[in-house]
Design brief:
Aspartate Aminotransferase, domain 2; pyridoxal phosphate; 11 strands; single chain; PyrdxlP-dep_Trfase_small; Cystathionine beta-lyase; 12 helices; PyrdxlP-dep_Trfase_major; Cys_b_lyase_bac; globular; four-stranded antiparallel beta sheet; alpha/beta; about 400 residues; Aspartate Aminotransferase, domain 1
Length: about 400
Amino acid sequence: MQKKHGQETIIAHCGRNPEQHYGAVNTPIYRASTILFPTLGQLDAKDGAKLRYGRRGTPTTHSLEDAICALEEADAALIAPSGVMALSVVLMSFADQGAHFLVSDNSYGPTRKFCSQLLSRFGVETTYYDPSIGAGIEELIRPETRLIWMESPGSQTFEVQDVLAITAIARKKGVATAIDNTWSGGYFCKPILQGVDISLQAGTKYISGHSDIMLGTIACTASVYERLRETYLRFGVCVSPDDAFLAMRGIRTLGVRMRQHETNALAVADWLASRDEVIRIMHPGRASDPYHDVWKRHFTGSSGLFGFVIRETDRTALARMFDGFTLFGMGSSWGGFESLMVPSNPSVYRTATQWSPGGQTIRIHVGLEDPADLIGEIEAGFARLKSA
């Protein structure tokens, strides 16, 4: 879909073709493996058919691809059954023999493990770089460098990368770029417009919005689509039409949810900044954040995920604080309507840079609850921490 309308209008209408489905507003759930061809001639010409076999897509999954393409303002899109599957497809697509990758040091743990534990076995070398490197990335590029991987902000430490500077260098050097865009939901940031070749998300998070499906999305430029598509097909990647349908439903409310997540999270972050227990807030949407200026050049808003650091404490005291929560859940993932909070230790993932915040790092996802209730719950948690 060409961008003729505002973003809210686009996400309300993208991926919908009621006239092709008997007037149904939403594309129905097509569960299919076999696709029948009425004549031998059409069977012989199936390479030109959009519907060929269920694994290659159905009207339901194609609708979601079209919607992701419109959301991210990309030339093409692919969907996968998880965020990790999406990143695996991207990384494998550039894993030529003897290839070299540059990966941001704040990247999602499974991204690093895929490079260090799997790709290394096939002779692909990975160099991890400081996420604040900007145009300095040029010094790390080699003749065999095939991909620069970014994550902005980092999902545990929230550094914001100078994507515009990095993509300018990458294009000059002929190196492909990819970014994990999950934090923005594809709503607050459009990496393709900033020169990135591939923008991927764990659609499990904000695109779904309801913590009930697994999904990965890959939006890309035309220049890399066939390479990605070939890897995608060889791995037999396919998505349940039921999950695709739910993801489409999530997209319709993405704008409303993202703006509320932003409002709620900023309210909680500002309150945390006033507390003696807290020694650091990691939220690039706040004017006091060291990455705020870079963030403003790349993002139009902030999501519900951020981090903070409290004064050093032991695990027993931390358990007193966390075990009493009723509104904040403890668990993997984020991006749903509900709030989550977990202690973390990003230092175990760092090799190019050091993470020494001087206290206990905590990752928080602020959901759609009343922020006053969430603040009250954290305040009570701090009281339990102090009493312990």
